[in-house]
């Protein structure tokens, strides 16, 4: 899941800094603040993100200063003392209230996401609904109770899961609210205090969500800070922040890990993927090709689990190619985020330039475009129409890089061992899918793929109960499911020896 915004140095962030001015809408919903210790906080400096549908600036957002970071961390530490001792069931009730609060502003939040990401409105609404489901899942999750490992006449050995402290949740721009909620909910449920940092490219929905929750939670339990290129490093290097959960690019993730090593923080990095899809010869092409197409082009390919390398057996390759082209051909990325399509613009200029370069490289190398034009027009938006490349070389940029846009490769395979080797020939390992009429065969192939998530006979999607963890440079750690809850806990092992040490016990023996 990519976000070019670098929390260490933020190169290429095209946001402007100036003195605050009146929000462009009189509706107070479209006025934005940081949230520190339960209070809305403005700033003497503001930034604006850009609407990717027309490249026009959106609303002012405050830029947090170092003093704001220090105040937020202090408030979080103070709140943590009581919050970590709050019973699990009571913390779960808070998540239920957060779900209800999000439902109250469901339509407004969908509009915000539509404008800050460029998603069509139905996908923006889906993101809000996915965030609601995450809150529901964690609110209903059973408590992580101590586990008894050994209990005999001499020793009781137990393992318990303990809240860590202050968590910094650092979020990308492609699914801002959903990915933030996927960090906030498990961190709060396990008794941690959370400071959320949105992407400077898409800060609005996260800031508004936390602002909307600020009266529901004790002050300092959940806070949000938008900032400039210094904010990420201030959070990562702060000695009183105990854990970092970061979603973004591999390049930035490595910088986060290096900075976190100064204080040996616990780190989860959910980084880029270059998802592979293996299609076996025993499938109904007319059924499978349209579903693979959705998994490749959903949100214009701006999804870490997107199927970017589609390996199709040579016996059905031409037929599959025709069906997937027919499925995608009617899908047009729209200039209007209000259109009821499934494709919108690339979220920001940095991603747009990267995708454009991969189109240009494919054109210059003479690769065949089975669908789409190799020419990307520089217009008034970041719209790029979908493209399918017919059997490019394994070492080509379109195969080896995560474009994070609407361009995918269709590649022939014949030998099962060979295709597995090609699928695994990458520095990433986040998600992959296998399609076959023989479930056992599909599982056998999936078990050989070096990836944290394998999906059989469906395009990859996240579900709250499913743990998602990266292999290789897709990052250490993971989120989702019970395993995701455990990642927000310290583990304490208690060795309780049953030998009596009370006064007089030796005489009694």
Task: Provide an overview of this structure.
The chain is of the alpha/beta class and 509 residues long. It folds into two domains: 262 residues, Aldehyde Dehydrogenase, Chain A, domain 1 (3-Layer(aba) Sandwich); 182 residues, Aldehyde Dehydrogenase, Chain A, domain 2. The protein is built from 16 helices and 23 strands. The strands form seven sheets. A seven-stranded mixed β-sheet has the order 14-15-16-13-12-18-19, sandwiched between helices. Strands 9-8-7-10-11 form a five-stranded parallel β-sheet, sandwiched between helices. A three-stranded antiparallel β-sheet has the order 5-6-23, with no helix packed on it. β7, α5 and β8 form a beta-alpha-beta unit. α2 packs antiparallel against α4 and α3 packs antiparallel against α6. The longest helix is centred in the N-terminal third of the chain and has 19 residues.
Characteristic key phrases:
single chain; 509 residues; alpha/beta; Aldehyde Dehydrogenase, Chain A, domain 1; Aldehyde Dehydrogenase, Chain A, domain 2; 2 domains; seven-stranded mixed β-sheet; five-stranded parallel β-sheet; 16 helices; 23 strands
């Amino acid at each position: 899941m990519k976000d070019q915004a670098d929390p260490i140095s933020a190169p290429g962030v095209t946001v402007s800094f100036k003195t605050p001015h009146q929000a462009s809408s009189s509706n107070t919903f479209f006025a934005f603040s940081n949230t520190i210790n339960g209070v809305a906080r403005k700033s003497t400096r503001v930034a604006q993100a850009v609407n990717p549908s027309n490249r026009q600036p959106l609303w002012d957002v405050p830029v947090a200063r170092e003093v704001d970071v220090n105040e937020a961390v202090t408030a979080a530490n103070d709140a943590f003392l009581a919050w970590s001792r709050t019973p699990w069931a009571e913390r779960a009730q808070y998540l239920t209230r957060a779900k209800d609060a999000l439902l109250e502003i469901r339509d407004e939040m969908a509009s915000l996401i539509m404008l800050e990401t460029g998603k069509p409105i139905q996908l923006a609404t889906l993101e809000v609904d996915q965030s609601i489901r995450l809150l529901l899942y964690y609110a209903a999750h059973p408590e992580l109770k101590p586990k008894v490992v050994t209990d005999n006449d001499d020793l009781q050995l137990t393992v318990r899961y303990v809240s860590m402290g202050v968590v910094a949740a650092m979020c990308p721009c492609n699914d801002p609210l959903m990915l933030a909620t996927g960090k906030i909910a498990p961190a709060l449920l396990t008794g941690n205090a959370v400071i959320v940092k949105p992407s400077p490219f898409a800060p609005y929905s996260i800031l508004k969500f936390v602002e909307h929750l600020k009266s529901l939670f004790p002050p300092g339990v959940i806070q949000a800070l938008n900032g400039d290129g210094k904010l990420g490093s201030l959070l990562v290097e702060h000695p009183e922040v105990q854990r970092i959960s970061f979603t973004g690019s591999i390049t930035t993730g490595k910088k986060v890990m290096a900075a976190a090593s100064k204080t040996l923080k616990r780190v989860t990095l959910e980084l880029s993927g270059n998802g592979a899809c293996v299609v076996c010869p025993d499938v109904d092409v007319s059924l499978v090709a349209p579903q693979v197409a959705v998994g490749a082009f959903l949100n214009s390919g701006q999804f870490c689990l997107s199927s970017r390398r589609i390996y199709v057996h040579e016996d059905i390759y031409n037929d599959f190619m025709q069906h997937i082209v027919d499925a995608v051909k009617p899908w047009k990325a729209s200039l209007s985020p209000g259109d009821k399509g499934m494709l919108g613009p690339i979220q920001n200029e940095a991603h747009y330039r990267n995708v454009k370069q991969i189109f240009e490289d494919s054109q210059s190398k003479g690769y065949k475009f089975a669908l789409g034009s190799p020419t990307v027009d520089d217009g008034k938006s970041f719209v790029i129409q979908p493209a399918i490349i017919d059997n490019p070389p394994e070492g080509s940029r379109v195969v080896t890089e995560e474009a994070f846009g609407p361009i995918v490769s269709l590649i022939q395979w014949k030998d099962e061992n060979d295709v597995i080797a090609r699928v695994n020939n990458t520095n990433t390992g986040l998600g992959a899918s296998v399609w076959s009429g023989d479930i056992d065969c599909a599982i056998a192939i999936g078990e050989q793929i070096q990836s944290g998530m394998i999906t059989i006979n469906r395009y990859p999607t996240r579900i709250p109960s499913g743990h998602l963890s990266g292999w290789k440079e897709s990052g250490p750690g993971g989120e989702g499911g019970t395993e995701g809850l455990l990642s927000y806990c310290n583990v304490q092992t208690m060795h309780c020896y049953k030998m009596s040490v009370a006064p007089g016990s030796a005489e009694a023996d």
